[in-house]
Fold this sequence. Notes:
By secondary structure, chain A is an alpha+beta fold.
Amino acid sequence: MTQDEALFLKDYDPSAYERPSVAVDLVLMSVIDGAPAALLVRRDEHPHAGRWALPGGFVRIDEALDDAARRILGQKAHMGDAYVEQLYSFGAVDRDPRMRVISVAYFALLPADRFAAALKADRGLTLTRIAVDWPGETGGPVAAMGEDGPLPLAFDHGDILGLAMLRLRGKIDYSPVGFALLPDRFTLRALQDVHEAILGVPLNKPAFRRRMLDKGWLEATGERETGSSFRPAELFRFKPRTA
Amino acid sequence: MTQDEALFLKDYDPSAYERPSVAVDLVLMSVIDGAPAALLVRRDEHPHAGRWALPGGFVRIDEALDDAARRILGQKAHMGDAYVEQLYSFGAVDRDPRMRVISVAYFALLPADRFAAALKADRGLTLTRIAVDWPGETGGPVAAMGEDGPLPLAFDHGDILGLAMLRLRGKIDYSPVGFALLPDRFTLRALQDVHEAILGVPLNKPAFRRRMLDKGWLEATGERETGSSFRPAELFRFKPRTA
DNA sequence: GCAATAGTGTCTGTCAGACAATATAGG
DNA sequence: CCTATATTGTCTGACAGACACTATTGC
């Protein structure tokens, strides 16, 4: 930094304009029993008390956006590391009636067992199945299904959830994000189940197997699944490097 | 809104936390003479005085993010309507040395003649060719080429420019964004030139023609281009509805 | 051996790339 | 007719879907 720049910095007045609050909202996604699922929190306070919302929080003044997402993943969702990706920023003026809040939405992909652990650790979290009226290229509205039908969502969180599903559907067959929804070792059938749940269509087994193996993302472990009363499938692992 | 909610709103204190500034930065893109191009502004003030930056500005407290992008498109880039899409939000803590600024980046796609008009209207704008070290699936770094080599970019605007190119490259062959880079009527050769510039690779002419016509995005006008000393190509138009 | 699923071989339709043939404007 | 490019036809290789076949485990 030059001396001029240092002088300029000293005199700069950052309080000239009224500033919005910036929040991060997290779409926690998994595939459970062959269907896409998400974790929501029930709002106890106004606004939208009684509705369900994405876990979220305000970005601190000295905290990067990505760091805020990971902090909320730990604090609000009781998760350790996970695949986290920025989704979109929502900035309608009236999306929060309290005040101007711009929300940077992220989504996190987690294996089903991590969902179970988080639900046990925090009773405030609710598991919902995501229902999408697929197939339809545009990826229409989604619904978070509770025990007694669709849950009412707070703010614009329904839009965020829908966009997250759309993004995931768009990425899953040309990027290795699907592996983040499975445990370390998994069978090709389990991987196919995940893809079918996300895409909402049944897939051809031999073609799926060929495609996955050709991409070079998979590494055979030589191990077999246990507990089946029929021929056990081989367990594969995600190969991190394209080598 | 219930009475409870109204009461709650009244008592809510929005000034509890220090808030970041939120800005919108615009990547104005076109294809000129067979190469991707962008419009930049030269910074006169600190920080990064003398470097080139994306046109941008702060989001007003009562202005939606998308509206801010369109306002800046008009005010700073002297453009009317255009294809505008949100790109990504950049939120590193130290990306602006003055203060905490979170930038929501947008990109706009414009036909080459609109670029020329904007350059005439505002002498502060600079036209740069975008050089990308392609082909390479990951889409390496980009450089904004001036008369005498690469221009130094301010803040993290090089990252933003690179991500914009990557996004455009990823979308162009499965979405109709390419038409936004051309005038109302255009030849298939011009469309192919745009695709080749964005993708950085030569394309097969018959295959390109077939693919485009099969997608149903194009409408033949029956008119022909003029001014060529050889067989004139038919002019096509973008068909808005998939009908 | 039986049941049930894992894993493989093969055919076929679709589609993009390659390449060549035909069409048409100005001169 | 000549030049240069538009436009079309055809062949071919890559690849996904369909479907049937073989393999392997527990019982």
